[in-house]
Design goal:
This protein has 380 residues and is of the alpha/beta class. It contains 15 helices and 16 strands. It folds into two domains: 277 residues, Rossmann fold (3-Layer(aba) Sandwich); 73 residues, Alpha-Beta Plaits (2-Layer Sandwich). It binds iron/sulfur cluster (2 copies).
């Protein structure tokens, strides 16, 4: 008996950020999903949630490109929605981040209001343990429709940041660090928390900017990688599955994917996804450079010698040549494991391997040094 098709994911090619090409590709994606009027009714509030990790020029591939966000805003506006845009960059104010990332112009042009994520609400996730209740920013909870607009990037801790992970930005500001601290080195647990945030926000539509993604030392200091695609769907878990297949990555490497399978939330199997747009094999790449694996941490006993632990476990290391002693890594470290003197010193006994420092260093001066285990596995 045929399996039921549960959801649709669309892949459309788009080779540049030329305005009309992007508008056209986003429109084709949305048409395959039933058109924007399926999601947005006249007068309803629409919140766009791009990836605005920090203010960065669009060509760096750190933020969702403003042309992709503009195309989604335009489409929602044409459907009659009251469109706003929000995120919670970890270190900078939303207004500065928008200006630095080239968003100001289109927001004025289309009439998109900025919504800083300041007010929060407590959401009961219904799961046991420290993630039982999560404070999520009010705007995504209050909006009639959330449109999730991730950037396709690598991520040292979570392997990739795609559709599900992008919604972690709905945790307001520095509260994100608190969640890292609660999860500690348990990445599977952190993946479960990310899934719960995605469930609470439940975006109606996800449109991923994969025109130029990021590979290598992401999500901030990696290398832009042209992939030439926009990928869209209503199920953010399914969207992530299709992107993994496109990049020849096992979706199980994503902790959010494992969490989704475990929870039975979202479509986790490619055979249950109806693909529309261009065929997957036309856009598949086999040489995408993943992030260095920060997740391979050998559980050594407390008495294990410091040196032994360092040898076996992945860890952040500072490139002293590139470091400008700005101190942002020390400010952001949830475990207070970083101190500054004439150089940056990381206390690896305190470090929980969340890689927030690597994620946020504005000068790309922190890399992931894989431990023996990761290197050995990588070489097999
Ligand atoms: S954030 Fe980067 S540049 Fe700034 S002090 Fe830390 S390692 Fe150095
Ligand atoms: S040193 Fe870096 S990886 Fe370690 S806990 Fe601090 S921010 Fe996280």
């Amino acid at each position: 008996m045929d399996r039921l098709v549960k959801t649709t994911v669309v892949i459309e090619k788009c080779d540049s950020y030329e305005r009309e090409a992007v508008v056209d590709a986003v429109r084709r994606c949305v048409e395959h999903l039933g058109g924007m009027s399926r999601f947005v009714r006249p007068g309803r509030s629409v919140l766009l949630k791009p990836n605005l990790l920090r203010g960065a020029k669009p060509e760096k591939a750190v933020v969702t490109h403003p042309e992709v966000v503009r195309a989604a805003a335009l489409s929602a506006r044409e459907a009659g929605g009251e469109v706003s845009l929000g995120d919670s960059p970890s270190l900078t104010q939303l207004a500065n981040t928008l200006a630095q990332s080239g968003y100001d112009g289109f927001m004025r042009e289309i009439g998109v209001r900025a919504q800083p994520f300041e007010e929060v609400r407590e959401v009961d996730t219904g799961i046991e343990g420290p993630f039982h209740k999560i404070e999520i920013a009010a705007p995504p909870l209050d909006a009639d429709v959330v449109i999730n607009l991730p950037k396709l990037k690598t991520h040292a801790q979570m392997y990739m940041t795609l559709a599900v992970k992008n919604l972690f930005g709905c945790i307001a500001g520095k509260r994100k660090l608190g969640w890292h601290l609660k999860a500690g080195r348990d990445y599977e647990h952190f993946g479960r928390m990310l899934l719960q945030v995605a469930r609470a926000v439940s975006p109606a539509l996800t449109i991923v900017d994969g025109i130029v993604g990021m590979e290598g030392n992401g999500p901030q200091s990696g290398t832009p990688r042209g992939l030439g695609v926009i990928i869209a769907g209503t199920d953010c878990v399914a969207v992530d599955v299709v992107i993994c297949k496109m990049l020849s990555i096992d979706p199980d490497l994503l902790y959010t994917h494992k969490a989704a399978r475990e929870a039975g939330w979202g479509v986790t199997d490619l055979s249950d996804i109806e693909l529309k747009g261009v065929p997957l094999d036309e856009v598949t790449v086999h040489d995408f450079k993943p992030a260095r694996r920060g997740d391979l941490i050998l559980p050594l006993p407390a008495f294990a010698k410091r040196r032994l632990r360092r040898l076996f476990t992945s860890r952040p290391i500072v490139n002293v040549e590139a470091c400008r002693l700005c101190g942002e890594c020390a400010r952001i470290c949830p475990a207070e494991a970083i101190s500054m003197d004439r150089e940056i010193i990381i206390d690896y006994d305190k470090c929980i391997r969340c890689f927030c420092c690597q994620e946020m260093c504005p000068h790309g001066a922190i890399n992931v040094r894989e431990g023996f285990l990761a290197r050995w596995l990588g070489g097999t």
